[in-house]
From TrEMBL:
Keywords: Dioxygenase, Iron, Metal-binding, Oxidoreductase
A GO cellular-component term linked to this record: cytoplasm
Protein name: Taurine dioxygenase
Any GO BP: sulfur compound metabolic process
PANTHER family tied to this protein: ALPHA-KETOGLUTARATE-DEPENDENT SULFONATE DIOXYGENASE (PTHR30468:SF1)
GO molecular function, one term: metal ion binding
Source species of the chain: Novosphingobium barchaimii LL02
Length: 271
């Protein structure tokens, strides 16, 4: 794919692109925005270096792709005065980090976010990578028999999974049914849309059958052939499409600090 206003360097043949030639701390031109849309559709996740964003610039960048998605489960971690911005932080006092299981962000919501834009200003001296997996490729690698079997099935996604099965006091967490196989609204391609982070069971079939199918799919999407892996630097950004990619935050840096902010973009009802 050719670009005139940005440069995109593929991270792997299947997904991931390092974008240069654009300053996200400043407003973007129409052609830059259009080409970033194309790059996201083509690469599924795009990365930027040396972009010291403040909250206003972070939100402005997200708004080029749609409105802001504010998930109920992020309320305890919202940045003061900026409910659109979620604080992402781990240090020596952390007992867990969000997102270690492979997942698509907030798939439990009725309209899950189109994408997530994560900006890290502080990183550990070593470790803390994020891995991504291509759900188009994962779907394409299924046998035709398995594709036929999964077509038309729906599965339940539950936010309480991320809280260890317990709903925190005073919070109402979403629980929503979505297709096991969804079609991306921009590319028209089919992809797997169940994930270990939120999906609890496939509806309309016996629970043992559901457990077996989900266990197979959760393992299937982790194949290295589908993946790319991003090594962070201070003031880097990762922008991924939750509709066709899953990711896993690798917590191999304890007790070091890894800190930044995330903004999510409004999505649609999976179909």
């Amino acid at each position: 794919m050719e670009y005139s206003a940005i440069t995109v360097t593929a991270l792997t043949p299947g997904m991931g692109g390092i974008v240069s030639g654009v300053d996200l701390t400043q407003p973007l031109s129409d052609i830059q925005v259009a080409e970033l849309h194309r790059a996201l559709d083509d690469r599924l996740v795009i990365f930027f270096r040396d972009q010291p964003l403040d909250h206003a610039a972070h939100i402005r960048f997200a708004n080029y792709f749609g409105g802001i998605h504010i998930a109920p489960s992020t309320k305890p971690w919202q940045a003061p005065g900026h409910p659109e911005v979620t604080v992402i932080h781990a240090d020596a006092d952390s007992t867990f980090v969000a997102g270690e299981d492979w997942h698509s962000d907030m798939s439990c919501d009725p309209e899950p976010p189109l994408g997530s834009i994560l900006y890290l200003h502080t990183i550990p001296p070593c470790g803390g990578d994020t891995a991504f997996s291509n759900m188009y490729a994962a779907y394409d690698a299924l046998s035709d028999r398995m594709k036929d079997h999964l077509e038309g099935l729906t599965a339940m996604h539950d936010a309480v999974v991320g809280f260890g099965g317990i709903t925190p006091e005073g919070m109402t967490l979403p629980r929503t049914s979505h297709p096991v196989i969804r079609t991306h609204p921009s590319t028209g391609r089919k992809c797997i849309y169940v994930n270990k982070g939120f999906t609890t069971y496939i509806e309309g079939i016996p629970r043992p059958e559901s457990d077996a199918l989900l266990a197979y799919l959760f393992d299937h999407v982790k194949q290295p052939l589908f993946q790319c892996r991003f090594t962070w630097e201070a003031h880097s950004i990762a922008f991924w499409d939750n509709r066709c990619a899953q990711h896993s935050a690798i917590w191999d840096y304890f007790p070091q600090v890894r800190s930044g902010f995330r903004v999510q973009i409004l999505g649609d009802v999976p179909r």
